[in-house]
Structure prediction request, 133 residues.
Amino acid sequence: MVPTFSDAASMGPSVILGGELIEYMSLADVKEMKVKVERDLTRAKDSLKEQNATFADKQKRALSFESLYAEGVVSRRELEQCKKEAKLATQELEDVELSLKDLHAKSTRLDQRLKDLLKTKMADGNKRQKRTR
Prediction:
């Protein structure tokens, strides 16, 4: 469960990232989200590798089509389509890189929250032990 606030603007921009209030999540929720984010990070890294390969292929093809067009081997329409595909591959690569960056930021925030929760839990445990003595 996540608490709600009447004035979300007062919480600051660092609290709400990706629609989640990580700094207010419970230990169980943080652990669960950490597993999901790690899985998403792995997928995003694999996707980045694939997209880099696709990007390189599309760029190489676009360059070769320019020379082929100059020689009259391919039509202008084919050249334009190839350039369009290269531009789309560039945009998709940027999207994957941005997604990966966001996931890394989220993972860092989750790690920090987990560390804070564990520190608090240990401090509470130490206080209880002192009271029972």
Observations:
- The CA atoms of residues 55 and 89 lie 5 Å apart.
- The chain has two helices and no strands.
